[in-house]
Amino acid sequence: MAASSKAYVCPSCGGLLDVVYDFQIKDPEEIKHIFLQRRLSNHPLDISGVWRYRELLPFCHDFSKIISIQEGNTPIYNAPRCAKYVGLKKLYLKHQGLNPTGSFKDNGMTAGVTQANLMNSKIVACASTGNTSASMAAYAARAGMKAVIFIPDQQITFSKLAQSLDYGALTLELEGNFDESMKLVQEITQESAVYLLNSINPFRLEGQKTIILEMLCQRDWKVPDRIVVPGGNLGNSASFGKALKELYNLDFIQKMPMVTIIQAQRANPLYKTLIHQSSQLLRVEARTLATAIKIGNPVSWKKAVRTMDWTQGWCDFVSEQEIADAKAMIGLDGIGCEPASATTVAGIRKLIKTREIDSDEDIVAVLTGNLLKDPDYTLSYHQGSLYEENPYSDELLEGKNKVQSTFANAPIKVKVSKEEILKTMGL
Ligand code: F0G
Fold first, then answer.
1. Whose CA is nearest to atom 12 of ligand 1?
2. Which residues on neighbouring strands pair with residue 34, listed in sequence order?
3. What is the pLDDT of residues 61-93, one digit of tens each?
4. pTM assigned to the model
5. Which residues lie closer than 8 Å to 420 by C-beta, 6 or more apart?
6. Ligand 1 atom closest to Cα of 304?
7. Residues with CB under 6 A from ligand 1
8. Could you tell me how far CA 83 lies from the centroid of its own chain?
9. For residue range 123-147, what is the model confidence (pLDDT) as tens digits?
10. Buried-exposed string 91-125: b where 16+ CB fall within 10 A, e elsewhere
11. Separation of 219 CA from ligand 1 center, angstroms?
12. pLDDT tens per residue, range 360-388
């Protein structure tokens, strides 16, 4: 794709474009060593957990144009309680929610906004379920660009909305869902000088490749058997496949891990499409309390299918109850995440029960968003008041379809009395 082009779609097949390189890498071991050495450096590009891996995303040749907020650099945690809960010997969680704006979007946004900067764009836009918009707003602010975000009214969390407002973005609350916002922003950016920064933009996906690069670097390049990721608009799944394929072709790795994508039960268009072996996406009217992945018409679905083909991967779905309990368990490991991220642990548990996953598999699940992104959900769960959405409207079904608070930990009101407190503490 030419650096000046605004096209995202192939004119002949209608598929999304990729950034394709003629890599000049002769010795992968030497590059791995350079990546490791850069962790000791204080150079601004080396401090970034995205640009540290610049040899594998060589689209930017003018480093003065890079817009970075020291993104990436996220930990991989051993999660013993989650492992026991799902039935695995060990489970690792790579927590992209510990990025500067609290989600994996920062890995992609540094690349997307850098490309906007290379093209001298002054205005950037995206449709979002809240995390893309928070991230884009922050990076646009750093770059001195105007940010315009399209969000479905009342369907993103307060924390995410607050971030976009604070970072100075023009925030448009659309009386529609995410899929309608996505369609509209595509039309508007196509007809104007506004640069689109949804994951339809292939440069965003270049940045997100570094989630895989950093994960493998942290594991001394020991490839896991499986990587599990939540599926919404399917940009992350797309980018993971591209990263792994490039690493394999360049001889950085000698085997491909399986990529397993997990969707919410009533926001599962990819699963439906695969199970019906449809060549067209089978869209759904998306419903889930995991608002980040409340998407029925994901733009990157074909690239996600490609990822599954390349990695022998698969897609599955989990219920609202399974998401809620898995999220609480991730919290009990002292890690925590937002609901969409918990689809991963819930999905692994489901696939172990159905024997599609073996208990001694080496698995890394990618947590995509921070616990603090959706405090309402967490509080409702712990206080026993989390209700599933009405399948036909955006109302919550009070009194019906209650999500059971299996691992509830509600706050306890106490008098200002030492005796009462000690009694409550069980002492
Ligand atoms: N997890 C979180 C926390 C997300 O915010 C998203 C997507 C996903 C998972 C799904 O990732 O789209 O690459 O499959 N959020 C987008 C947004 C759509 O607008 O913030 P995906």
1. 233
2. none
3. 999 999 999 999 999 999 999 999 999 999 999
4. 0.97
5. 414
6. 14
7. 103, 105, 128-132, 199, 230-237, 292-293, 338, 340-341, 368-369
8. 21
9. 999 999 999 999 999 999 999 999 9
10. bbbbbbbbbbbbbbbbbbbbbbbbbbbbeebebbb
11. 25
12. 999 999 999 999 999 999 999 999 999 99
Helix pair 235-249, 301-311: axis angle to 10 deg: 40
Confidence category of residue 394, pLDDT binned at 50, 70, 90: low
Atom 10 of ligand 1, nearest CA residue: 232
Q: Which two tokens stand for residue 307?
A: 């990822």
Q: Which residue has the tokens 């809960």?
A: 85
Distance CA 264, CA 320 (A): 7
Best residue among 129, 135, 185, 317 to mutate for probing ligand 1's pocket (most ligand atoms within 8 Å of CB) is 129
Strand (E) or helix (H) holding 182 = helix 178-191
Contact 229, 197 (CB under 8 A): no
**In angstroms, rounded to a whole number, what is the distance separating the alpha carbons of residues 157 and 167?**
16
User: Quick one: tokens of 340?
Assistant: 């969409």
Strands 195-196 vs 226-230: parallel, antiparallel or unpaired: unpaired
CA of 293 to the centre of ligand 1 (A): 6
